[in-house]
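Continuing the series of single-chain predictions for the mutant panel. This is the parent chain; the variants come on the following pages.
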Amino acid sequence: MPRRHMRAVCAPEAPLRAALCALRTELGVPESFPPDVLEEAGRSPRLPSHDATDIPFFTVDPPTSTDLDQAMHLARREKGGYRVRYAIADVAAFVTPGGPLDAEAHRRVTTLYFPDETVPLHPPRLSEGAASLLPDRIRPAVLWTLDLDADGRTESADVRRALVRSRAKLDYAHVQRGIDAGTAEEPVALLKHIGTLRERLEVERGGISLNVPEQEIVEGDGTCALAYRAPLPAEGWNAQISLLTGMAAAELMLAHGTGVLRTLPAAPDGAVGRLRRTAKALRIDWPHHVSYARLIRSLDPHLPHHAAFLQECTTLLRGAGYTVFRDGLLPEVTSHAAVAAPYAHCTAPLRRLGDRYAAEICLAAAEDRQPPEWVLTALDALPKEMAEGSRRAGTVERECVDIVEAALLKDRVGDLFEACVVDVQDHDPTVGTVQLVSPAVVARIEGGRSRLPLGEHLRVRLTAANPGTTKARFAPA
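Parent structure:
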């Protein structure tokens, strides 16, 4: 599922805009696309013979999104259970292996999201136009058909190329309102039903979905402010459809002996022990007989101490990577610890390079044939490429948050704020992280003489904030 990203409108001369431009230069972020790449992106795609345009697909994304990777249609099966049809943009239909567009995608690896602009993996004429599953446009797609039983378990999975046509572009808030009011048509209303079943199965197998509140720029009356936003339930249900497809893709790859998985080893005991200590400090009851997954499900991201703990839980997700295998030689680790099952990234090819390769491997497996040579040739180098691209995307996200926070606070150095201590360094307990009540800032705190009270509220003073040069820093008041 695509992440929700910060958005800010700022004048070219604004300090925030200047700092973001400097960050792009510092990180070597690609700028415009070369002419030969744009020329290839404008060519007609290779179209499949199978026609699925009669299926009334719909998309669910943030309201401003135009790079639409996925469209779905949900239905009940006559003999019980459910049928999930999930159409994924067929980027490979537009890309010539080894050509300029392919080479540029390998250079960029992922789409990068900045508050003031997006740096896309593919030219916008492709990612937001010809390949995007926009409503009322016929598009080539990789079409998954997943049949589930009455409990939401996968009974069968099929994948093929097909022509599709989405009927509606929906956003999370619209979907949530319709489902809550009981006015959503059945294909949309089933998103809650199937999503809830899949969430139950996730708990059963020990999987984890973290509903971590996000920092969001709120614009109004010509000003900007930061606020915390807890994800809507509809976002979680939508994510379950993507997870369902990624799990089916992984099983298909493993059964045929060639693939690229998204893997995450189990967290070491030390990391889990630290998390238990954090829960105790935040006054979160975590009995030893209660599993980590069950505890996560009980938390309310609207509560500050729960939100702080959910943020700490993301430390257990570090170490995720891409694992390639071929010729039936399966890797030692095939599962993703947070999913608690084998899993593959395959549902966001407009924004992630590796998904195009995963799709080709699955299509070949479904037809019981070898993947194309261009896939096999690139496979071994793909994990390193994806790791470097993921690191750059993570750096962009962290640095952008720091810059936005500094820009919004630059005129308030010396002011006092109410905050909660959400992290304390093990080697120096006078240094840590605070989460302000308002505005929605999470920043470093240092300069005190005594141990920071993890989980406690305290008043803090802003000591520094300058976008592009100094991150927001606080000290105990």
